[in-house]
Structure formats: C-alpha cells, structure tokens
Write a structure and sequence with these properties.
Length: 313
C-alpha cells in the first residue's frame, strides 16, 4: 500500500475517533509503533491539530479544528465551487471571512494549470454584482452565533428615532442588496421585527433559552398576516418590468397579453411603510387602487419632495 493511501486511511480513522493511542493505530493497520509516530508527524505537518499527552494513560487527541478527509472533485465541479465564492465578493463583512479566503486560495492552488487559465479567463466575463457597501457590520459573527445557540440578546440599536436598548430573540441573519438583516422577536413590542445588523452598536448581554423557536428557514416559509389588507395596483409595461426586478414583488405580478399587468394580493398592514418607497420609485408606472393608507403615504412623500424644490422666486 502506498504511503499516501495509508496516510489517508489513518487520517479518516483518527478524525472519527478523536481520541486514540499509537498502539490502536498500530493494531488497526498492522504497522510498528515507530511507523505510527512518523505518520502522526506527517499528519501534523499537513495541518491536522493533534494534542499528545504523555504518561501511562496518555495518547493523542484530535482538536476540534480538524481536517476533513480529502474530497475528490472533477475539474468542472471545482471551477463551479470557485465561482460560487464570487457572489460573496461585494459584501464588506461575512460570517466566515478568513475561512472563505482560505478555502478559495486552497481550491485555486489545487487546480491544474489548464483549469487556472480557464478560471482567470472566466473572471473577466462573469460577475455576481451587488451594491458595494462600505458599512461595517462588526457584530455579524456574534449575532449568527447567538442565533444558533438559541440565546436572547440585549442590544443597543441605532433606529430612526435614535439609540434604543432592545431585548430580542434572533431568528437568524440573511444578506440582501449588499446588507445584512436580522429578523428577531422583540419582547417589548411582542412581535417579529426586521433589524439591520450594521445598526447594532453593541451586545450588552445574552441569556440562554430552554424552549425552541423558529429558525430563519421556517420564518421565510411562514409569514403570519395578522392584519390583512388588499394590495391592488395597475402596472404599465415598464411597471411590470421594474416590479419583476424586485424580489418582494416579483412573485405577485400578473402580466397581461399587452405587456401591462397588475398586483392583486393580501399583505399585512404593517408592510405598508416598507412598500411605500418601492412604489414611489415606480412613479407613473404604478397606479395604486388599494389600500388607501398606501395612497396617503405616497401623497405625503411626494408633497415633501415637492416642498424641497418649490420655486421661491
């Protein structure tokens, strides 16, 4: 058996056991103790974190930051994985910044020269573009960690009305349009609200929950409409085109044979403030018929804009 194959077999054996002795490896692979020690040194040089403990009851322990057994990819699979990382390039902060850079470097380095040439060329012809944000999100990793660990957070948050202390139960984080968002249950307002992670100024304290709560995947699949209201909008051809480029509206646009369209759906009344700015951007290409609150909101914002540009001569 080749040394490379033997090393791979031992790597899989020790990462599965985590705690082992040299004698266990010797018995498993029918090799001498001296050979075992050489293989362990080789695995350490490869980057496997192994702690050794001397003495009668000693042995070896694979630390938590352990290597995975090698995975074989085809050239096309490796190239596709490499370009999946490109979709993350426009985010200033990511939960696993260092790890992603390391994986990308290892993957590129492992490619044969022909594949590297292919990757370099494709880079000039494809991009996964998002608005390049310069806003820092220092608590992204912490918020994600506490969400997974089912913890409540006491935070300082910069809202439109100023800095506020919040007591929340985070559901998870997601990225959209170059920013990171945190849906969380607000204990004061007794409902789930959406927070910008970059507006969290500090995490004051945390507390563990014993009961389970919904996660981000479940939240995406289930939006409870507590105060239903009809959204009815007529769209021009241009209005249809623009609405279909907005993820929130895309799935509810109905296109007619002449290219115009409409939206006729039920939303929660609490979403009106959010969608007002969306329809304000559409201008004459979207005519709101219902709800009245949305029409009032559009009029108010339009009047505020007009008042800024009044001709005072």
């Amino acid at each position: 058996m080749s040394k490379a194959k033997r090393l791979l077999d031992i790597l899989m054996f020790v990462t599965k056991k985590q705690k082992f002795t040299a004698q266990e490896i010797a018995d498993e692979f029918h090799i001498s103790i001296r050979t075992v020690h050489r293989y362990i040194l080789d695995l350490s040089d490869m980057g496997l974190s192994i702690y050794s403990e001397q003495g009668r009851n000693g042995g070896y322990t694979v630390l938590t930051s352990r290597l995975l057994p090698p995975i074989l990819f085809t050239e096309e699979e490796a190239v596709s994985i490499f370009f999946a990382f490109l979709s993350l390039n426009y985010y200033r902060n990511l939960p696993f910044d260092t790890e992603i850079s390391s994986v990308e470097h290892k993957l590129y380095s492992s490619l044969p020269s022909e594949a590297k040439i292919k990757v370099d060329k494709i880079r000039s012809y494809i991009a996964f573009w998002n608005p390049k944000r310069t806003i820092d999100t220092p608590f992204l990793n912490d918020v994600l960690k506490h969400s997974i660990e089912n913890k409540n957070l006491h935070i300082q948050y910069e809202s439109k009305s100023g800095m506020r202390k919040k007591h929340i139960r985070p559901i998870g984080v997601y990225a959209h349009d170059g920013l990171w968002y945190l849906p969380a249950y607000d204990y004061h307002k007794k409902k789930i609200l959406l927070y910008r992670v970059d507006r969290i100024l500090s995490i004051l304290s945390t507390e563990k929950n014993e009961d389970e709560f919904m996660n981000l995947k479940e939240w995406f699949n289930f939006h409870e409409v507590k105060s239903p209201i009809r959204l009815y909008v007529h769209l021009t051809t241009e209005g249809v085109r623009q609405c279909k480029s907005v993820p929130y509206l895309d799935g509810i646009v109905v296109t007619q044979k002449d290219g115009t369209g409409y939206i006729d759906t039920i939303i929660d009344r609490g979403e009106i403030n959010f969608i007002t700015s969306l329809f304000l951007r559409l201008g004459i290409h979207a005519r709101i018929l219902e709800p009245k609150e949305l029409i009032v909101g559009l009029r108010k914002q339009a009047q505020e804009i007009l008042s800024m540009y009044e001709d005072k001569d």
